[in-house]
Design brief:
CATH superfamily of the largest domain in chain B: Multidrug efflux transporter AcrB transmembrane domain
Helix content of chain B: 55-70%
Largest interface: A-B, 59 and 61 residues
Strand content of chain A: 35-45%
Number of strands of chain B: 18
Largest sheet of chain A: 5 strands, mixed
Oligomer: heterodimer
Strand order of the largest sheet of chain A: 23-27-26-25-24
CATH architecture of chain A: 7 Propeller
Structural class of chain B: alpha+beta
Strand content of chain B: 5-15%
CATH class of chain A: Mainly Beta
Radius of gyration of chain A: 24 Å
Number of helices of chain B: 32
CATH superfamily of chain A: YVTN repeat-like/Quinoprotein amine dehydrogenase
CATH architecture of the largest domain in chain B: Up-down Bundle
Shape of chain A: globular
Strand order of the largest sheet of chain B: 2-5-1-14
Number of domains of chain A: 1
Shape of chain B: elongated
Radius of gyration of chain B: 34 Å
CATH class of the largest domain in chain B: Mainly Alpha
Distance between the termini of chain A: 31 Å
Helix content of chain A: under 10%
Distance between the termini of chain B: 15 Å
CATH topology of chain A: Methylamine Dehydrogenase, Chain H
Chain lengths: 359, 891
């Protein structure tokens, strides 16, 4: 700070020397993780390597099991929602404002690709659509879904993306049709180049058998054997995870987890908890050992043990009080969870203990 | 007889004036007493209060922004109250109920802005709730006191899912909740706020908590406290164990009647946990006795913020009375030991009292109130008045002996001979302190006027009235006068003077002060503007205030607001995504400064609402990318709230909003750095539809005050020293005299500034007046000694002899004055107000250093350099009749 303080007594000297001290600009804190960070997705690429994405264009990579993290330059400020590596070098990221980023060098550099995910209003105005979900099956084929039932896909490694609105099969009359005509799609997953699933608002489960050209609804199967008679009452589904063409799970509002054993029919799984699970679950993964994990709002984490048909609250060893949005395992022992307040948790023992990864 | 420093003609006039004052003593005395009486009456009307606006430089652009937006976006006078549970989390029914009631009571504290309270228990803290039919409504987190565990669980869920609350009003570990209240500046009453918070907000829920909710107010008579009727008794608590039931009215504690919740809490508060109390409980008509075991405290309440800090300062203000009493008693004792009679002991107090009445009366006339933090200042002036009086009294005794025990001649001679140094001393003090008016801060302006006037009033008490008072008093006993000039003190002065003027002494003195000046000059580079520590420097670091402040900082990151206003160029500017994203970027940027805890803006609400609107999906917790979506999101949240509530986030036309940063402290260096960072960000991130304006909140206005202190300091120093130099120039009619007198002052100032740097005392609106007034006060010692040297050289014509004579006569009185001043200012170090204690200690050091410099360095410099303006007096004296003889002939 300016040395006004050179005192009364040294007045003449002060004038003579013109001495003044500038404001001392202590360096800004440089962390890779701040409590204001919000991480939406993580992909575990090996036991030690994982890449996560989040708010304000943030991409972090760890190659040593979370001991250190490196920030990868995304070149954008938008929220980045989903990341999908197809091998150690190639990956896509989707985000807010129709953002699609691609890397071919393991994340060192990211190039923006034109998603064409744009909504044209009746007044002629356009709006970039949020791309909430993404799945890539190989280095050429990827699909991204988002707001207003948008689906955009590439089959040439991202050089061109073709965007379209997925039409709904259900014809609802009156005001309902307005709400359900273009539900928000939150997640997409393909098991091969033909078979894929999209989940979203109003419990929407869309299935394709032709690589995403045509889609058929499967959510009505969720109503079978339940008291639900209106598709609008089905819970919004945020995440889907398929283990082959037959087996898969989807997670959604009010802690619902739906599963399919044949790739066609879905039913809600039983959740055995000592007090009600009322918060949404956002992401579900199923593992080769037939276990499953799902994470959600208010720090809710539920787990299905291998071979069991019901889910239970997982004991993390500590209270997690904010939302968790991403979960990923490289193998049944090594996994990650990410969420709000810059939270990153890691397990190396199949989820018996989870330890926070500090910034 | 010696002559003064001025010419013989002037001295004759002074002798004549002294004679006339005695001749017309009755009318002069009556006029002075009438005026003093009037001022005394005005003094009795004085109030002790702090006007926050007066502490700010009103013309500074930051303060203008602060004034413009403080009524809506919140000002600098925030109180933060933190409730922290000792076990578990806050989401239990009794704890949430208490948070709700605490918030309710906070809302009733005098001067609070009812629309600017943030707490999970306040109606303006809302969350988005889905209603039947798919509609969303922004509802208060707590609509009423929670009653069941389900209510508590529901509140917990709301908090955890609302990003604008979790981590901001509830700590991330769920153990603490924050109640933040802003106070209206024009309605600040620190003492009242302090006691109302203690009695109504804290005591019933902390020390006075027995496990039952006691009714606070009668809904039909909201201005009155209701009787202590039990509303709820919580299971497993002391109240439940005592058999207290809902509907009971507690009427007494151990036989002492209690009329309401606050009185009940006050009655229980003094007892330790485990103490058994007997409560008088009225059930219907009957009054029964219940045995209550005072429970262990399960919750702590911490309160911080400027109004609270000043509340503590006021609560310590009674210290001043005791310090003054002890100081005066000690001074009387010292003076009695020095003068050996009661006149010498008490007469200087008369000067101090009269000057004080004149000064305090003037304070009232200009509509200025006394701040407890500036009480050291009037005390210092009074002490100064007393020290002038000691000089005069000592001289009176000296002249009494010299004039062969002729009282009238002695009175007139002492008056005439000391007039010049006394008046010069008073003038330098008065004008020196007047330069503070250059700082455009109302409080400093008023203080400079008052201090200057007060010091000038010493002229009346010391010069005008003195001859008359001495004439009324019986002449001292010659034995007493002679005794004063004997004994160990005089011997000590003689020995020190001899050594000082010896060859070794002179070299030692010069080297000593030279080395000290160099060390001081090096150390004082650490002196800073503003506060140098994160705790408040006004009270001690282990004081309840600073302990609370630290606790809240630990839990919530920062509590001292810096409000940056985003002023739109047009309506709806705050719906523009670019503006909102820049605001958010600003938040993330400045939060990386290590002294910024966290921040809050409209974007936090926007993101949170957008997320809740989309069924808690975090991916929607972003700023929408079109103005239409932003507008829709705001509509969802704000449409259910009255404009008075939403105005704290954004004005109703969406033209202007703010980003509030909560800083961890208000250290001067940090404020300067944070402001500079803001300016850098603003320059690098221009917005099309709005611009950022600095700055409101405590940090903003302190930045403005520090800025003004920096801006005016050099000029103030220059004028301060310049004024002293000019007065000295006229007094001694010499260009060189000022250099000799200012040299010891320079070095004293270097040392005092070094001490401030080392002791971590920053320069702020509180310390500046004291530091500046010290400049003027330091010169007085030198004036007395130099005047006496000139007087003596006119008689004996020998410089060395004159210096010696001056040091053993005036120098002796100066040394005694200094002892009194140092001792009385040092007593302030016992104050509970750290600021007063530190400033007292610092001024004591200052008085001591400038005294020693005047007694050693000044005479040595005169002896070494043999200034012409002194030597020429010897030549003139030889050509002239002794003035005293002439004066005697005139009279």
């Amino acid at each position: 700070m300016r040395c006004w303080s050179i005192t009364r007594s040294l007045l003449l000297l002060t004038f003579a020397l013109g001495c003044h001290r500038e404001v001392e600009m202590l360096p800004l804190l440089e962390r890779t993780i701040y409590t204001t960070d919000r991480f939406y997705d993580i992909q575990a690429l090996s036991t030690d390597r994982a890449v996560m994405v989040g708010y304000a264009g943030k991409i972090l990579e760890t190659t040593n099991g979370g001991q250190t993290r490196e920030r990868l330059p995304s070149g954008v400020d938008s929220a980045l929602y989903t990341i999908r590596f197809t091998d150690a070098q190639h990956a896509w990221i989707t985000g807010q404002d129709g953002v699609i980023l691609h890397t071919g060098d393991g994340g060192k550099s990211w190039q923006k690709q034109e998603s064409h995910a744009v909504f044209k209003d009746r007044d002629g105005s356009t709006q970039d659509l949020y791309l909430f979900g993404l799945y890539a099956i190989d280095n050429d084929h990827a699909w991204a879904v988002g707001d207003r039932s948008i689906l955009t896909s590439t089959s040439d490694g991202g050089r061109t993306w073709r965007a379209r609105t997925v039409p709904m099969e259900t014809d609802l009359s009156g005001g309902q049709s307005l709400a359900t005509a273009d539900p928000i799609f939150y997640d997409v997953m393909f098991t091969d180049l033909e078979q894929g699933w999209i989940v979203g608002e109003f419990g929407k489960i869309m299935h394709t058998t032709d690589g995403g050209e045509t889609w058929h609804e499967q959510e009505r199967s969720l109503m079978e054997g339940t008291s639900t008679i209106d598709v609008l009452d089905l819970p919004t589904l945020y995440g889907v995870h398929m283990m082959g063409r037959q087996h898969g799970a989807a997670a959604g509002l009010e802690g619902h987890i739906a599963r399919t054993q044949d790739g066609q029919h879905w039913s809600f799984d039983k959740i055995e908890v000592e007090y009600p699970l009322v918060d949404p679950l956002f992401r579900v993964v199923e593992l080769p050992d037939d276990s499953g994990w799902a994470v959600g709002a208010a720090g809710e984490v539920v787990r299905r043990a291998p071979g069991q048909q019901f889910w239970q609250r997982a004991h993390l060893g500590q209270d997690v009080l904010t939302w968790l949005r991403g979960v990923s395992f490289s193998d049944p022992q090594h996994g990650w969870m990410v969420g709000g307040f810059g939270l990153i948790y890691r397990t190396t023992d199949g989820g018996q203990t989870w330890l926070p990864s500090q910034g | 007889m010696s002559s003064g420093t001025t010419g013989g003609q002037d001295k004759r006039a002074l002798y004549w004036l002294g004679e006339r004052l005695i001749d017309y003593r009755h009318p002069v005395m009556i006029v002075v007493l009438i005026i003093t009486g009037y001022f005394a009456y005005l003094s009795s009307q004085l109030k002790l209060e702090t006007s926050f606006g007066d502490l700010l430089p009103q013309s500074h652009p930051f303060v203008q922004i602060h004034n413009k937006y403080a009524p809506t976006f919140g000002g600098a006078n925030n109180i933060q109250l933190m409730v922290e549970v000792r076990d578990g989390d806050i989401f239990t029914v009794p704890t949430l109920a208490r948070i709700y009631r605490i918030t309710e009571e906070m809302d009733r504290v005098y001067g609070v802005n009812h629309n600017q309270i943030d707490s999970i228990g306040h109606r303006t803290t809302r969350y988005l709730r889905a209603q039947s039919g798919g509609f969303l409504k922004a509802e208060p987190v707590m609509l009423s006191v929670p009653k069941t565990a389900d209510d508590a669980a529901q509140i917990k869920r709301i908090v955890h899912n609302t990003e604008s609350i979790y981590g901001i009003l509830v700590s991330l570990d769920d153990r603490a909740a924050l109640v933040r209240a802003n106070f209206i500046e024009s309605r600040l009453d620190h003492r009242r706020t302090f006691s109302e918070i203690n009695e109504n907000v804290i005591a019933p829920f902390q020390e006075g908590w027995i496990g039952a909710m006691i009714k606070g107010r009668d809904p039909l008579k909201p201005d009155q406290n209701a009787p202590a009727v039990v509303d709820t008794v919580y299971r497993g608590t002391a109240a439940a164990d005592a058999g207290i039931k809902v509907g009971d009215t507690i009427v007494s504690v151990n036989g002492k009647p209690v009329g309401n919740r606050a009185e009940l809490a006050a009655a229980i508060k003094p007892f330790k946990p485990g103490t058994e109390l007997s409560l008088g409980v009225q059930r219907g008509e009957a009054v029964e006795t219940a045995k209550l075991m005072v429970p262990e405290r399960d919750m702590d309440i911490f309160v911080a913020g400027e109004p609270r800090l000043y509340g503590w300062v006021y609560s310590y203000a009674s210290d001043v009375f005791w310090i003054l009493t002890v100081t005066y008693c000690l001074e009387w004792l010292l003076r009695w030991m020095y003068f050996h009679d009661w006149r010498g002991a008490l007469r200087p107090t008369l000067t101090g009292l009269i000057a004080a009445f004149w000064g305090l009366g003037f304070v009232h006339i200009i509509g200025f109130a006394l701040d407890p933090l500036i009480l050291v200042m009037p005390f210092l002036i009074t002490a100064r008045a007393v020290s002038h009086a000691i000089q005069m009294h000592d001289r009176y005794y000296e002249e009494f002996e010299r004039h062969k025990w002729n009282q009238r001649e002695a009175i007139v001679a002492s008056f005439a001979e000391l007039f010049v140094p006394t008046f010069s001393g008073i003038a330098t003090d008065a004008l020196g302190v007047l330069v503070i008016i250059l700082v455009p801060i109302r409080m400093l302006f008023n203080l400079a006027l008052v201090a200057s006037w007060w010091i000038l009033a010493i002229t009346v008490a010391e010069l005008l009235l003195n001859p008359i008072v001495y004439y009324y008093l019986r002449a001292p006993d010659p034995e007493v006068v002679l005794a004063r000039d004997r004994g160990w003190y005089k011997a000590l002065i003689n020995r020190v003077t001899d050594w000082n003027l010896s060859g070794t002494g002179k070299i030692t003195v010069l080297v000593f002060w030279g080395v000290l000046a160099i060390i001081g000059a090096y150390l004082m580079r650490g002196l800073i503007v503003g506060d140098p520590t994160s705790a408040s420097p006004l009270v001690w670091s282990d004081s309840p205030y600073n302990v609370s402040h630290a606790h809240i900082q630990d839990k919530f990151g920062g509590v001292e607001p810096l409000i940056v206003v985003a002023e739109g160029h047009d309506r709806d500017a705050m719906k523009d995504p670019q503006v909102l994203r820049t605001m958010e970027k600003f938040q993330r940027f400045l939060e990386r400064d290590r002294d910024v805890g966290y921040s809050f803006s409209l974007t936090d609400i926007l993101r949170a609402v957008n997320m809740v609107f989309h069924e808690l999906e975090p991916k929607w917790g972003v700023i929408p990318n079109t103005s239409r979506d932003v507008a829709q999101t705001f509509f969802i949240f704000f449409s259910g709230s009255p404009p008075t509530e939403t105005a704290k986030y954004v004005d109703p036309s969406y033209t202007t909003a703010h980003v509030t940063f909560f800083a961890r402290n208000h250290k001067g260096d940090n404020i300067a750095r944070i402001i500079k960072r803001c300016q850098e960000f603003m320059a690098a991130n221009p917005m099309d539809k709005a611009e950022f304006k600095l700055a409101g909140g405590l940090i903003g206005v302190l930045a403005a005050a520090n800025d003004e202190l920096v801006r005016n300091d050099l000029l103030m120093n220059f004028l301060g020293f310049g004024t002293i130099y000019i007065i000295v120039l006229f007094t001694y009619r010499s260009w060189a005299a000022g250099v000799y007198l200012l040299a010891p002052l320079f070095i004293s100032n270097i040392i005092i500034n070094a001490a401030m740097a080392v002791l971590a005392i920053g320069v702020n609106v509180n310390t500046l007046p004291l530091v500046t007034v010290g400049v003027g006060f330091g010169i007085d010692y030198g004036l007395y000694i130099m005047s006496r040297i000139i007087e003596e050289i006119r008689v004996n014509g020998d410089l060395e002899l004159s210096i010696r004579e001056a040091l053993v006569t005036s120098g002796k009185a100066v040394s005694f004055t200094a002892v009194c001043m140092v001792m009385s200012t040092a007593l302030w170090t016992f104050s509970n107000i750290r600021f007063n204690a530190v400033m007292g200690g610092l001024l004591a050091v200052w008085m001591f250093v400038s005294f020693v410099a005047s007694e050693t360095l000044l005479p040595v410099m005169i002896s070494y350099f043999r200034p012409a303006f002194i030597l020429r007096e010897a030549a003139r004296a030889r050509a002239r009749q002794p003035v005293a003889a002439t004066a005697a002939a005139v009279s």
